[in-house]
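hiii, so i know i said id send this last week but things got crazy w the move. better late than never?? heres the sequnce for the chain we talked about at the cafe, plus the structure i predicted for it. fair warning i was half asleep when i ran it
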Amino acid sequence: MTAMDARGYRWLVIAVILAGCSARQAPPPAAVSSPPPAPARSGPAQPAARAARVSPAPASPGPAAPDPNLPAELDRGMIADAIQQIRPDVTNCGLTWPATGTVKVSLKVGADGRVASVTVKATPDPKLGACVAEVMQRAKFPATRNGGGFAYPWMFPAAPPH
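okay and structure toks below
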């Protein structure tokens, strides 16, 4: 599969997801006027009143096309800037769950810059890895046309002797 095929497939998956989400939205309630109830009569049953016509809600527009002025994907500088913003929180993970070693995480970032998924690939301690993953999930990246994915190693050296 070429890079272009992968991008096209990615957009197809996004379009299907968005179509499924918009299909589940309930239409806004339509104003329906109904005639007042008829007085009760004795005798043979009357035919049921015809249902009031309700016009369907207008179809919602599809997903907006990506802004052609945005960069195609994340670059090293964008990643470094976003990582710098969360570095203090990841450092706190190391202070809360002291372990020596490297936590390797893999991220997928959506076109809107939000982290879509984080996977811990390696960690010296499960609680440290979970903490780092939680912080990485909150990272904010610049918007791009295609989003992106990358792996990042967080190194937790042994504490110096006091």
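btw The radius of gyration is 27 Å. thought thatd interest u
miss u guys!!
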